[in-house]
Amino acid sequence: MTDLAARARTFLELHSAPGILALPNVWDVVSATVVAGTPGVRALATASHSIAATFGYEDGENIPFDLHLGMVERIVQAVDVPVSMDLEAGYGDAGETARRAIEVGVVGGNLEDEMKPLDEAVAAVEAVLRAGRDAGIDFVLNARTDAFVRAAADADPSAVLAEAITRGRAYLEAGAPVVFVPRVLAREDIAALVDAFGPRKLSLISVPGASLPAREMEQLGVARVSTGPFTQRVALTALQDAATAMVGGGTLPAGTRPLN
After folding, report:
1. What is the pLDDT of residues 76-107, one digit of tens each?
2. 189 vs 7, 8, 44, 206, CA distance in Å?
3. Would you kindly state where each structural domain of the chain is located, as residue ranges?
């Protein structure tokens, strides 16, 4: 088994190992090395929003793919743990995008469905998984449905949940090992999704001040929780607070650690 295949297998197994898989998202080499060096961290996931922001681009495939992938490659080379990449919506060719990500050492990825017709979304899932098989690895696709993200403000909540379930089941049937449903916060919705998909098949994002704690997600049967752009926002909040203190005549926070 190649090193890449071994990393992919390890990453896949982490989704069913005891304890929820917590992935604080990273966006550059220093954030990746700090998180990878944190006790208990077993894998990394990149955040496309945060990488785009690092280079001055808006989220949503506005950053050129080569620039995006170049940063991810630097992250992969800097750490010894499996790395999953946010593939966004596949940059127009989900299979080719996944193939190129695998070439730089990525072993998993998120793929947004953008609420495209279900047959198109399933075909994209299948293309990514095929790219993994062609490379000889078990690519860990975190198939994302935007049912909650793109729901209208006045949408029937039960209909939104039903759509997420329909899409998630289709992606699981196509071979995706886990389904990502961002913007799900209510305990009853999480429980319904776990019941529909099966235990350790649901992936969520932790939203500051709104999400359940990771330990409670774990008790509900969630496989994985990530942080998307919020870890970068935590860092930027600390930076702005430090700048405010300095401009106001103060000093930098005591306890600041030399992490770079």
Report:
1. 999 999 999 999 999 999 999 999 999 999 99
2. 32, 30, 26, 15
3. 3-241
83 in Cβ contact with 76 (< 8 Å): yes
Fold topology of 3-241: TIM Barrel (3.20.20)
Which residues are registered as beta bridge partners of 208?
Answer: none
Pairwise CA distance, residues 241 & 160, whole Å: 38
CA distances from 102 to 5, 129, 149, 190 (A): 10, 11, 28, 31
Contact yes or no for 65/52 (Cβ under 8 A): no
Among 182, 145, 140, CA closest to 166: 145
Report the alpha-carbon distance of residue 157 to residue 212 in Å, rounded. 19
Q: Which two tokens stand for residue 108?
A: 């998993």
Find out whether 138 and 104 touch, Cβ atoms under 8 Å. Answer: no
Residue 40, Cβ neighbours under 10 Å: how many? 6
**Which pLDDT tens digit goes with each residue over 1-25?**
589 999 999 999 999 998 999 999 9
Task: Assign 3-state DSSP to the chain and report helix, strand, coil percentages, each to 5.
Answer: 45, 10, 40
The pTM of this model reads 0.95
Tokens found for residue 123: 């075909």
Residue 63 has pLDDT above 70, yes or no: yes
